Amino acid sequence: MAAFSSLTDRLTGAFKHLRSKGKLSESDIDGTVREIRRALLDADVSLDVVKSFTARVRERALAEEVSQALNPAQQVVSIVNDELTEILGANVDRPLNFAKNPPTIIMLAGLQGAGKTTLAGKLGYWLKDLGHTPMLVAADLQRPNAVTQLQVVGERAGVPVYAPEPGVQSGSSDVVPAGLAAGDPVKVARDSIDVARQKLYDTVIIDTAGRLGVDEELMRQARNIRDAVDPDEILFVIDAMIGQDAVATAEAFNEGVDFTGVVLSKIDGDARGGAALSVASVTGKPILFSSTGEGLKDFEVFHPDRMASRILDMGDVLTLIEQAQKQFDEQEAREAAEKMVEGTFGLDDFLSQLQQVRQLGSMKKLLGMIPGMSQYRQAIDQFDEKEVDRTEAIIHSMTLEERRNPQILDGSRRARIAYGSGVTVSAVNGLLDRFSQAAKMMKRMSGSSMPGIGNSNSPRKNKKNKKKNRNRSGRSGNPMKREAEEKALREKLGGHKGGSGSSFMKKPQPGQLPGGLSTGLGQDLDNVDLGNLGNLNIPGLT
Fold first, then answer.
1. Nearest Cα to 40, choosing from 312, 375, 368, 286?
2. Contact of 208 with 225, CB cutoff 8 Å
3. Which of 24, 113, 275, 328 could crosslink 72 through cysteines, CB 3.0-4.6 Å?
4. Is the domain 5-89 a CATH 1.20.120.140 member?
């Protein structure tokens, strides 16, 4: 499911009745503002934020920028987009504050279950991909198996973990009080800085303990860790699905530890999610990152303007382009395009392109970045991601020759491929049929007048040929001049006898044959009665 999909549906529904109107009245704007207010409240956005948001939208919608606009409906959507960007944190789009002298210390804070441990692994993976050398620190010694979980996450991300204390290792899900925990989390956090300096790690990510609710014990421990390590960034991790508690929790942590940035987790779940939109406005702290899934790559920098575009179903093409530029091999893509033009694009090339697309992340997520896709959300949600795995398995079960030349795949080969990939023969046939249709389409496009592709049907050449043919016909394009030319030609040919074959010859009178036909038949037929043709002696017919 896309981020804030329910809010997207409500807001797009509020704009539908505006599209058919060339001019908006005050009642139209008031009705739209009411629908927007209901959508935001239903999404659990903070009441104070909703009031200020709708007031600004109404004020701007009644101004001259809408009344004098060529398309008032689009202008209202633009206003909502601007105001939505504002509450998400406009002009605060920034990366992490890195220390001048490494290591950069990042402390994670939040309630239990918000996703701090998983986020530590994602953040470490993201920093490693940027060229940094991060280290994870297991300072959560109270939650059962929290240290083990961080070690597993770190191993998956390829990031080292500093865990001198085992923490609570039990089958119970109850959080152990700080006094009964095995080890001192403050000491672990302090020692991790020295270890990072010794081993030349430039970033330290400290995973702290959480509680089911805000209490003094939780805040005291968080403050002690903060005072011990003096972090460059304190990231407050918040679950986007917890409702209005998100605002209250954010305010409590802001007063307790004074965090510097917010990370939204689980925004793909979207129970309602709107409370998370209120955090930036309520606390005045920017949203820096968002987590959209369970994979290590399901993590991205938060851009307020792009998120506002997603919520309004205008897509996020910029993020899609950035990911494509990062993952796609330009040389390989250029070679694939040339093969498409030449008609030599095979299944091995298709497999290579499919693998590059998979590196961009979930297919559902990619489709959600395309503008106007909310109307197809049901089909997107029902899309089976494993279908891509099955396609790869089918192609991997083929030989290199079969991939390059799918025409040789007869019934026995297809049965072997189906058995080797664990699918049915009909699935193999379906893939080959779709690929064949795609190949025909690409070949047709390569032979059409596509810009930048040399072919015999280019617009310039077609235009030249049309001009050449027009000149060859000898007929004028002016109707009056053409009629005069035809009249002159009829007058010129009117007095000629014989079968010249001209269509401008004088028409025969009723009961007579055209002149010259009697000569061809070998007898005088000028006075023959056409009603009595049975007595004619015509050579070859009698």
1. 312
2. yes
3. 24
4. yes
**CATH superfamily of the 104-321 domain:** P-loop containing nucleotide triphosphate hydrolases (3.40.50.300)
Is the CATH number 1.10.8.50 carried by domain 329-447?
no
DSSP letter assigned to residue 343 = T
pLDDT tens-digit readout, 374-391: 666 667 667 777 888 888
Half-sphere exposure at residue 40, Cβ-oriented, CA atoms within 13 angstroms: 23
Q: Cα–Cα distance between 51 and 234 in angstroms, integer?
A: 30
434: tokens are 């779709």
3-state secondary structure at position 505: coil
Q: Is the peptide bond before 304 cis (omega within 30 degrees of 0)?
A: no
What does the pLDDT look like over 457-483, one tens digit per residue?
A: 444 444 444 444 444 445 556 666 777
Max Cα–Cα distance, the chain, nearest Å? 133
Neighbours of 215 (CB within 10 A): 10
Sheet with 161-162, strands from edge to edge, namely 161-162, 134-138, 203-207, 104-109, 233-239, 261-265, 287-291, 299-301
Question: Rounded to the nearest 5 degrees, what angle is found at the Cα of 253, between the Cα atoms of 249 and 256?
Answer: 140
Report the relative pairing of strands 299-301 and 287-291 from DSSP bridges: antiparallel
Q: Is 504 helix (H, G, I), strand (E, B) or coil?
A: coil
Asked if residue 118 lies in contact with residue 105, where contact means CB atoms within 8 angstroms, the answer is: no
In whole angstroms, what is the distance from residue 499 CA to residue 520 CA? Answer: 10
Cβ atoms within 10 Å of 491's Cβ, excluding its own: 10
How far apart CA 231 and CA 154 sit, in angstroms, is 21
Q: Is residue 65 exposed (0-12), middle (13-18) or buried (19+ Cβ within 10 Å)?
A: middle
User: Mean pLDDT over residues 300-313, rounded?
Assistant: 82
Half-sphere exposure of 31 (CA within 13 A, CB side): 12
CB atoms within 10 A of CB 375: 10
Calpha distance 242→279 (Å, rounded): 12
Place of tokens 């430039």: 202
Report the predicted TM-score, pTM, of the whole model to 2 decimal places: 0.65
184: tokens are 């001192």
Domain extents for the chain?
5-89, 104-321, 329-447
Cα separation, 167 vs 185, in Å, equals 9
